[in-house]
Amino acid sequence: MNLINTALFIIIYYLVFSLIKKNKKRNENSLNGPFALPILGNALQLYGDKPHYKMDELKKKYGSIFRVYMGDLETVVISDWEIVKEMFSKNFDKFGDRVKAPTTKHFSNNYNNLTLSHGDNWLEIKEFLTNALKKTKLICFNQLLDDQVTQLLQVFNNYADAKEPFEPRYFIQRFSLNIIFKFCFNQDFSFDGISKKYDQSINKTEVGKHGVGNGKRLTELLELIDVVFEELAVNHLGDFVDILKPFFSLYLKYKSTSIYEIRNIIMEEYQKHKESFDSEKPRDLLDLLLQEFEYNIENDGSKCPKKNVEKIVGILIDMLMGAVDTTGSSLEWCILLLANYPEVQEKAFNEVKSLNKDRINLCDRSSTIYVNALIKEVLRYKFISPFGIPRSCSEDCYIQGHHIPQGAQIIIHFRGIYFNEEFFQNPLDFDPSRFLLNNDSSNTQFVPFGIPKRNCPGQSIAMDELYASISNILLNFKITTVDSAQIDETEVFGLTSHPNLFNVKIEKRN
């Protein structure tokens, strides 16, 4: 009986302590926020498929910076770009690291990638990747991109000839994955076929010759990436409730195995490159990374240290995940919005047509200001990452008079910025022309690839991919809805947001 009473006392004490800790202000400059429950915090309040919309309601009540609790983790939510810049740029030393949690540790292989690493480890990985990317002109990226755009246009052409409804996701994912695989591993895949089923069968029989470059392996990889993003999309209490973290870590280790399978695929490619590596003739990003990580088998036969192998694999997984789910989703959104807004599509088509060219190249970007504005507006109107990747506060500090406690998670509420009338006139409207105004605050508030110093290192690749594909699709095809009704624009929320599956009708321009 005494044991039961003791257990009840401990439980009650823990609940009361948690309740007081979450709701008591530390000082007069502490952030305001909604009432937080013991253990759960505001998890129930934010639960659902659109937590970024619920953040809008909290923003109206508590202002552009407030606090919520994700379980035991105090979270600062920011909807003011000036505060974001002061934190992430001027005070990078305090807000440069990511949040440590079982999920981030598991999917980054103990923080051995660029996206989720910390401190000196992040600085080292960033330096190596930045130096490698500076040399990518050695691997003829522009020609690589042009070849993949040609294959994507052929798919559009096949569907136009067949007069079949076109569901773009599968082919867009393949297009993005193809580019990044060619860029990283000097491998690509056939893009034949007028349907997903037919396309897969073509690859299985004709292209399945080596490595990842076969249809079955490609399909497997796409499915694994989808599973990983589905797992990352869920806010697990095991990440935020302290007493659950050890148990959740064990669960991830033994039950969440998709990331292990992706890592094994990348390791296979690493081993192949290691055997044929020539520092004088880099073929792809992996070769350039091997150079940067001082892998020199010609001079002294030394092997790349295990910790560096893990970092290289982590970087390559980052590149794959970013290409398929962020760049790919942006292109998918663009196709949907072109179908829903034919007047925008026609204006962009007339601009590319006026160049009197059969093919639009990256060098034409300065002559297509409306297409550039269209891409920006897609990235604003259907921002891919609702809250970005959270950062952590390393020490108690004050930002514009607000007390930010050590250990707090910091997230950017992008909807609160991109749909703020103070920054974007008529923000609920899809209007590319807003980015044509040089004095429009839209241009200064628009940062789709994050804030330096920790912005996306692959942003130039992503923008090149979007421009090359969208401009040439516009030039060659008219995209319309299947039944003349607008396609549903409701996003599927996750770590990244994407549209529900949809079909469009493809017609040739010529």
UniProtKB/TrEMBL annotation:
It is found in: Membrane. Pfam families: p450. Keywords: Heme, Iron, Membrane, Metal-binding, Monooxygenase, Oxidoreductase, Transmembrane, Transmembrane helix. It is a single-pass membrane protein. Its cofactor is heme. One of its GO terms (cellular component) is membrane. GO terms for molecular function: heme binding; iron ion binding; oxidoreductase activity, acting on paired donors, with incorporation or reduction of molecular oxygen, reduced flavin or flavoprotein as one donor, and incorporation of one atom of oxygen. Heme binds at residue 456. Belongs to the cytochrome P450 family. This is Cytochrome P450 family protein.
